[in-house]
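Re: weekly structure request thread

Next one in the queue (63 aa):
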Amino acid sequence: MTPGAGLYDPKYEHDACGLGFVARLDGRRTRETVEEGLEVLHNLEHRGTTGSDPETGDGAGIL
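Done, posted below.
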């Protein structure tokens, strides 16, 4: 992406360990967005994002 294009600004570049973000800027709700979010969770599984304890949670999920 070109520096300064859209919502991107290189000044916000820093280490975001274990974070994934998927959004549609036009606000449309699509299955593709959900599928991409699930793919992010799957790809972060090696970092412990399993949601295996329903009592406490590990912060993994889709909002």
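The mean pLDDT is 77. Helices lie at 31-43.
Next request, please.
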